Amino acid sequence: MRTGTAPEVPAPRAARWPAAARRLAAGRWPAVIRLLLCTLVRRRPVPVGPSRPDQLRALVAVLDEAVTAQRPADEAVAACGEPGPVSRGAARDCGQQSIVLHRLRTRLQDLGTTDPDLVAAQARAARLLAYDLWMLRASMNLAFTVRPVDRTETARLRLNGLGRPADDLRRLRDTLRAELSEA
Fold first, then answer.
1. Is the pLDDT of residue 129 over 70?
2. Is the pTM of this model over 0.90?
3. CA atoms of 101 and 103, how far apart (whole Å)
């Protein structure tokens, strides 16, 4: 090897093939046979995923935590809507609840469910948690605005909690829990 030149390294793709398969694929075989050889050489065992009851159990566990976390988040949003000056504690509570809900939403999205019904329920729960996160952020923006105006103050005073999406998440969890108890 000379200085300043690249080392002669086989192509990464060729390095993965067994020698016999490389010799056969390099010959003048029809394309179909070469494709079959490629498929046979690269075939790996398919990992078996968790069963539907296991997926349902995992989804219900995360939703249980999310429903539990909604009460302090609801209280933090309501604290931002109280008349008079908003305390710094309300900002701290909103921030902490945002972190908790964001982590739960991330865990929910990382579950890896494969059953179509559970994937739809998981997506719905993620949307409902996203709404809760948005509501926490919006309440902080209304409560701690730099330039308060009458319109902002009126909207802030109407804040009283997370609202109907929190109830929808609770109902979704209860439905999935009932399905889990039947199984």
1. yes
2. no
3. 5
